[in-house]
Amino acid sequence: MHIDILTCLPKLIESPFSDSILKRAQAKGLVTVNIIDLRQYATNKHRTTDDYAFGGGAGMVMMIEPIDNCLTELKSKRTYDDIIYMSPDGQRLSQPLANELSLKKNLILLCGHYKGVDERVREHLITREISIGDYVLSGGELAAAVVADAVVRLIPGVLSDETSALSDSFQDNLIAPPVYTRPAEYKGWKVPDVLLSGHQARIEEWRHDQALERTQKRRPELLQKP
Ligand code: SAH
Questions:
Q1: How far is CA 104 from CA 31, 64, 66, 101, 146, in A?
Q2: Interval 32-84: pLDDT, tens
Q3: Going by CATH, does the domain composed of 167-224 fall within 2.40.50.150?
């Protein structure tokens, strides 16, 4: 998979990709993540990528020209499955959406800033809009990092134990069961006996029961989903 992230503040998004699972995924060659500074595509002498809003009002708007120039160059080199604008009014990110995106080959994530992008970018240049929740961030960079993380960890080989992503919460509409590690007893607080029994079938049954119970208690609406 190849992901291009377009931003006017590249520093804001570099660190999530330079550590842990996202770093290893790149080192293993399973994904390439390219952070692109939109200022490189600015056309004015001050290299600005934003301007005042027509009609007045507070807040700057990201201009269409640098974004279009950048997208044109990228599209001349690759065919993209989706060009995604991070936006609070976009389709809400969910596990099924992350699963769907993890099957794509080439993605662009466009980060807005200030008041967002010129509406013509949304009308003509992008194919999809994603929100990470009903709240407003100051920029799309953290949202893009959230989407990239949720998607990249699903690519086969990224997690060391491939079955691990499948047993996470929201896969199969279930919340993950509790997990424990050593010591088996701490300050008198014990790990459930079954997990120490070595009886794999019983352990799996216990985990499934716990997952069901947790889902019923915390997110009963998930059990109604098809
Ligand atoms: N004026 C806009 C918000 C702009 S926030 C509005 O009211 O809808 C600035 C940028 O942050 C947006 O362009 C978007 O890229 C990003 N952003 C803010 N909240 C987000 C969210 N919940 N999900 C995804 N991106 C978000």
A1: 11, 26, 26, 5, 17
A2: 999 999 999 999 999 999 999 999 999 999 999 999 999 999 999 999 999 99
A3: no
